[in-house]
Design goal:
24% of the residues lie in helices and 20% in strands. The chain is α+β, with helices and mostly antiparallel strands.
C-alpha cells in the first residue's frame, strides 16, 4: 500500500503582512477638504454688530449691507499644508520705517496734549493725537517710538478703516490672511475682524467663566512662522464693555537684558522653530493629522531701527531649539518663557475703552489677552475691533548689535 503525503504551505504572519502591503500599494485615498473653510459670507452677523461699530462704519463709508464679515473666496483659501506654506514663501522688499525719523519726535509730539510713559521699559500713551490726521513724517516718527517703547496707545479715536489699511501699508507688508474674516469689501482684506460674536459663532461653543480657555491667553507674538514675520500690529477696538478684556505686553529687549552675559552669548546665533496658529491637511499624509506651517527663526534678533537685541521666542508658537536634544530644548525654552511672562517689571497691562488703538512691535514683544469678558451665560459683552499686521524684514542677528541697556549706558558693554 502506497501512502501519498501532501505538503501544505501555511503562511506565516510575515507573509500575510507582506501580501497586505503589496495590495495596499495600489490603493489610492481621496479626501475632500474643500468644505473645511467656506469663503465669502458664510454667516451674516451684521445684525449683531455693536452700535458703536455700526456708527464708525457708517461715518467712514464701510458698506456691510450685503453681510458681515467676509472671508476670502473659496478659490484663494489654502486647503493643504503645502499651499499654506507657499503663501509669501519668498522675500518681499521692506522699508524699515523710523530709521531716519527725528529722535526727538518733534512733529508727532506737537500733536499730543500729553505723552505718558506707562512703565519704565514699555508702553507709551499719546493723548490728543488722532491717527486719522497723521502724515508720513509723523507716522515715521511713530514707527521709531514704537520700536523704542514696544507698544503705543491712542484713546478716543475716530479711525477710518481705510486709514488703518493705509497705516499698515506704510509700516510694512500688509498681511492678508488666507483664511481669516475681514470687514466686507475687497479693499479691507488686510484687516482682520476681532469680534466676540464671530469667535462664538465659529467655534459653536458657549464659553463660561470656568470653561473659558482661549488660545490668545497664551503669551505669543503675531505670525512668527512667516518668512517675514510680523513687525507692527495695529489693533483698533471700536466697541468694548466698560470693564474686562485687558491686554498685557512684555518687552523682548528687557527680557534679553534679564539674562546673564554668558547665557546671552550661548543663545546668540542659535535658531528655534516657530509654528502657525492654523493647521492644514498634509496631502502626502492625509491620515497623519493636521500639520502647521513651521519656519526656524533666530532666538536673538536685532531690530533694524534701534539696533537693539531682543529675545525672540514665545510659548504660543516656539516648539524647539535647533541642534539641541528635546529635553535640553524644553528646559531652556521654559526658562526663557518664564523670563518674559513672570518679570512684571518689563510688562505693561492696558485697559481698553471703546475707540482705542494699540500699535506694537512683534519683533521685540509678546502679548497676552485677559479673557474675563464672558459670564455664565456666555455673554462676552459684544467686543468688536479690526486688526492689521505689517510684516517686516527677514529676521536677522547682528553680532555687533547692543542690548537696550548697553545702548542706553545702563549696563557695561559685554566683553565676549
Amino acid at each position: 500500500m502506497t501512502t501519498i503525503t501532501e505538503t501544505v504551505s501555511v503562511p506565516t504572519a510575515t507573509n500575510i503582512v507582506d501580501e497586505i502591503n503589496k495590495k495596499a500599494e495600489a490603493l489610492t485615498l481621496s479626501i475632500d477638504v474643500t468644505k473645511r473653510v467656506q469663503g465669502g459670507i458664510p454667516l451674516d452677523l451684521s445684525s449683531k454688530l455693536p452700535a458703536a461699530t455700526k456708527a464708525r462704519f457708517d461715518r467712514h463709508g464701510l458698506d456691510y449691507s450685503r453681510g458681515y464679515p467676509e472671508r476670502p473666496t473659496n478659490g484663494t483659501i489654502p486647503l493643504y499644508h503645502h499651499e499654506a506654506h507657499a503663501v509669501r514663501d519668498y522675500e518681499i522688499p521692506y522699508i524699515a520705517r523710523g530709521k531716519d525719523a527725528d529722535p526727538e519726535f518733534k512733529a508727532l509730539f506737537a500733536k499730543a496734549t500729553e505723552v505718558k510713559h506707562l512703565t519704565k521699559y514699555i508702553g507709551t500713551e499719546l493723548v490728543g493725537v488722532q491717527l486719522n490726521d497723521l502724515n508720513e513724517k509723523e507716522l515715521d516718527e511713530l514707527a521709531l517710538l514704537i520700536a523704542q517703547r514696544v507698544v503705543v496707545f491712542f484713546r478716543d479715536q475716530d479711525l477710518s478703516p481705510k486709514k488703518q489699511v493705509e497705516i499698515a501699508e506704510f509700516f510694512g507688508i500688509p498681511e492678508i490672511h488666507p483664511i481669516a474674516s475681514h470687514p466686507t469689501g475687497e479693499e479691507y482684506r488686510s484687516l482682520r475682524v476681532i469680534w466676540s460674536e464671530l469667535f462664538k459663532s465659529g467655534t459653536g461653543k458657549v464659553e463660561t467663566f470656568r470653561r473659558n480657555k482661549v488660545d490668545t491667553a497664551v503669551w505669543h507674538s503675531d505670525h512668527p512662522h512667516e518668512f517675514q514675520p510680523a513687525g507692527i500690529t495695529h489693533l483698533h477696538i471700536d466697541s468694548n464693555p466698560e470693564i474686562g478684556g485687558d491686554t498685557l505686553w512684555s518687552s523682548g529687549y528687557a527680557a534679553f537684558d534679564k539674562l546673564s552675559p554668558a547665557f546671552q552669548k550661548f543663545l546668540e546665533g542659535k535658531y528655534a522653530y516657530q509654528t502657525s496658529l492654523h493647521a492644514y491637511v498634509d496631502k502626502d499624509d492625509p491620515l497623519g493629522g493636521l500639520k502647521k506651517v513651521e519656519r526656524k527663526q533666530p532666538i536673538v534678533r536685532t531690530h533694524p531701527v534701534t539696533g537693539w537685541k531682543s529675545l525672540y521666542v514665545n510659548r504660543g508658537a516656539t516648539t524647539r531649539i535647533e541642534g539641541l536634544e528635546p529635553e535640553e530644548s524644553k528646559i531652556i525654552l521654559d526658562y526663557l518663557y518664564d523670563v518674559y511672562e513672570k518679570s512684571l517689571d518689563i510688562q505693561v497691562r492696558f485697559r481698553w475703552t471703546s475707540g482705542t488703538s494699540a500699535l506694537w512691535d512683534n519683533r521685540v514683544s509678546q502679548h497676552s489677552n485677559v479673557h474675563d469678558l464672558v459670564d455664565e451665560q456666555g455673554d462676552a459683552g459684544n467686543r468688536h475691533g479690526t486688526r492689521s499686521v505689517s510684516l517686516a524684514e527677514v529676521p536677522f542677528f547682528d553680532p555687533k548689535s547692543l542690548s537696550q541697556r548697553e545702548a542706553q549706558g545702563l549696563d557695561p558693554k559685554r566683553e565676549d
